[in-house]
Amino acid sequence: LLGVLPSLLVTSLTRLVVLLDHYHYSDAPSNYNDWMSMHMHMHSISIMPNDMHMEIADTIVVWGLMRATLAGVAAWGEVRLCRSLTVTCGRSVARWTLLWMGTLAGHVSAVPALLPSSTCMILWTYSTSYLLQSSQLSQPQLSQQSLRTSIALGLLATLATGWPFCALLFCGTGLFSLHQTYHTHIITTTTTPFIPNKKKQWMAVAHLLLWVVLCAAFLQGLVMAVDYHAYGRMVSPTWNIFKYNAQGGGDELYGVEPTSYYIKNLCLNANGVAVLGVGLFPLLLAWYRPSYASTMVVTVALPMYLWLAIVVPRPHKEERFLFPIYPMMCVTAAISLDLLLGTLSHTM
Predict the structure, then answer these.
(1) DSSP state, 251?
(2) Which of 39, 126, 264, 310 is deepest in the core (most CB within 10 A)?
(3) What's this model's pTM, rounded to 2 decimal places?
(4) How far apart are CA 154 and CA 27, in angstroms?
């Protein structure tokens, strides 16, 4: 715990300064839709009155505390992720990642927002920290516990936020978990170092998949119970939003934008980090091929590029749709910069 306190303190103070700086500034209206719904539920308001702004002004302290809490939870997750990156990729990559997570305009504005995209982003940070940690633990039991924690956080993001398509962000978690579980049961002797036990390997994978099904059923049951209490009938917002977005042209009701919208947005909110993390990362990784390349491609790069491939072509575009990939972009940009700086140090 003492080892993470300095990083956590710096990250939390950065979050606090940003929150105070933006306290009196308005944001996109969609960023406050969930807060308004929560406010109406807290005060048992069924219809929005004309003086709703006065009601919200009375609870500005609650609003500020909520944003500060989200920022604090995110800060701890970022520190956890960077500690795992220290072992996997090196201290330099972890430090650059933590720096950009604390200062990147798009990321710091996404963290305290009460949105499904921000919640998925925070849960991905925690999930990936446990995922990388699972490969660093020597005891198989502890490794499996960390692995299952990572999967549970991914299921929570998919089933409890009302954003079922965020499951795409955790595709790397699934692939890495299956690979890690399959290769856990290896018999080691003095004469033959590695003897795969196929039966135990496939049994371990089957047990993991069964656990995933049971965990998903449990979480979905809790979500449906909460929805039943709120709506008075059996509903599934997750299924409803999936159907809505699966229908062609449904989201165009709220406006359409060209592809350049996201390019301009990334240039404004991510600057050089977007260039390093999205544009140069695959080229640099293919050229230098560091030892951790396969791990980072599966757990970080693959979900990021798949997410961009899904959201960019859709006619309706919003800034909040990029929120989930900001941590991934920080990691890939940190790796790119570390590889470039390593080359410069060797040539000088």
Answers:
(1) G
(2) 126
(3) 0.86
(4) 28
